[in-house]
Amino acid sequence: MHPELLDGVRVLDLTTFLSGPIATRALVQLGAEVVKVEPPSGDPTRAGLGMRPGQPSLPFWWQLHRGRRSVVLDLKSAAGRESLLALAAVADVFVENYRPGVIERLRLSPEALRSRNPRLITCSITGFGPDGPAADAPALDAAVQAFAGAFEYPAVFGMPEGPIPLTVADISGGSAAAQAILAALFARERSGFGCHLSLSLVETLLQWLLVSDRMGFLRSPATFLAEGSDGGRFVVQTTLHFRDRLLQVLDAEPATAGLARDPRFATWEARVANAEAFVAAARRAFAGRTRAEWLARLAAAGLPAGAVQTIDEALVHPQLMHTRAAGVAGGHRVTRSAFVVDGERADDTSAPPALGQHTAQVLTEWLDFGEERIAELAAAGAFGPPSPA
Predict the structure, then answer these.
(1) pLDDT tens, 186-208?
(2) Distance (Å, rounded) from C-alpha 16 to C-alpha 22?
(3) CA 140, CA 170: separation in Å to the nearest integer?
(4) Residue at 384 is within a domain
(5) Is 230 among the catalytic positions?
(6) CA 137 to CA 347: how far, in whole Å?
(7) Phi, psi of 257, deg, nearest 5
């Protein structure tokens, strides 16, 4: 049985899109009970970003929202709001990533929630912060990247100016939020009280950008793609002592014999100045053997190199099969929990919840509501407009 480190921790997840679900996904993988609270219309990303509600779910949804339960509450109704407050009174963590001001308009501020439950840990994820001159700006990933200066990063590697082609702002924010929640849970064990956590995507992204390669130390010829005689592509990356080690390996190849004595490549500075010629020579050597042969030779020499794979190929690689890091859920190839505890990994390949699938179940388990009380809430619009009689 997988040792669930957060067993018994209850999390109310009011997040959408990416940053919040990434945070709560980590909590799921560590054993927390995460209840996703959705409006009657459902999370807009259920069908995939840019798709219309009701269309089939895409791998995005299957990867991100497995292992949790779904409760539908209409927070604009008094009954829905009161139901959420009742759930918060018995929860451990409350996470939201609304735009600044929304949670206050719903009268669900951290102060309101913790007045019901002083042990509750509340976490708000915003784009630019809860207040200030940029707080109300729409915070999609590219806009946050532009604000944080991430657009200069592709240019370091000779690529056109623009966003990093990965949702790094959301990922950095979600990762930081999960870390902060875990620290708050630990602190609560000593103090007995919860706290409010506030994180912004721009600040967490800047933390990453400031320790990234802003000077281009890893651009060509330090990093370049090559192709073996069988057409298999692989990447070679050399820094520090690896630089001369690669030169020695290439010098021993018939196609590049004497390369180490070529004054254009005698020093690293010379190789940088003649990067195009050096990489062309290296590729001639690499074209003489298959990719597998070269990866074995480079590994034997202690040189960093790796086969270029698609995501789908990575998910079925023998390494991930050996560690059981990937599986299949609903016909989609997905990753399992990244956390291995005492040699055990959670096998979280269950389907994501249907909209509102666990509403009655959670209200019964957490609040001891019976069928009559749940019917009263439905009639009062707690779960959306009541059905006509």
Answers:
(1) 999 999 999 999 999 999 999 99
(2) 10
(3) 8
(4) no
(5) no
(6) 39
(7) -60, 135
Helix and strand tally (H, E) in the chain? Answer: 17, 13
Q: What is the DSSP letter of 254?
A: G
Dihedral-angle region of residue 351 (phi above 0 means left; psi in -120 to 50 means alpha; beta otherwise): beta
- Does 18 lie in the same domain as 141? yes
How far apart are alpha carbons 46 and 347 in whole angstroms?
22
| Residue 52: pLDDT band with limits 50, 70, 90 | low
Q: What stretch of H or E contains 37?
A: strand 33-38
Q: What is the pLDDT of residues 315-373, one digit of tens each?
A: 999 999 999 999 888 888 889 999 999 999 887 778 899 999 999 999 999 999 999 99
Evaluate the omega torsion of the peptide bond into residue 44 and state whether it is cis, within 30 degrees of 0.
Answer: no
Shared domain check, 115 and 63: yes
Residue 282 is encoded by which pair of tokens?
């290296």
Residue 389 in any domain: the answer is no
Residue 226's H or E segment, with its range, is strand 223-227
Contact 141, 152 (CB under 8 A): no
Report strand pairing: 121-126 vs 93-96.
parallel
Indicate whether 290 belongs to any domain: yes
* DSSP letter for each residue of 5-16: TTTT-EEEEE--
Number of domains in the chain: 2
Backbone angles phi, psi at 36, to 5 degrees: -85, 115
Q: Would you say residue 254 lies in a domain?
A: yes
Q: How many residues does the chain have?
A: 389
Q: Which of 95, 98, 130, 129 is nearest to 25 (CA)?
A: 95
Among residues 40, 70, 71, the alpha carbon closest in space to that of 353 is found at: 70
> Which residues, other chains included, contact 378 with Cβ-Cβ below 8 Å and sequence gap of 6+?
386
Whole-model pTM over 0.70 = yes
Q: Are residues 38 and 159 in the same domain?
A: yes
Same domain, 59 and 174: yes
Helices 242-251 and 275-286: angle between axes, nearest 10 degrees: 50
> How many Å apart are CA 31 and CA 42, to the nearest integer?
24
Burial class for 201, CB neighbours closer than 10 Å (0-12, 13-18, 19+): buried
Single-letter code of the amino acid located at 236: V
Residue pair 71/359 in contact by the 8 Å Cβ criterion: yes
With a CB cutoff of 8 Å and minimum separation 6, the contacts of 162 are 151, 154
Active-site residue identified among 92, 170, 342, 348:
170
Q: Which of 268, 270, 248, 269 is nearest to 258 (CA)?
A: 248
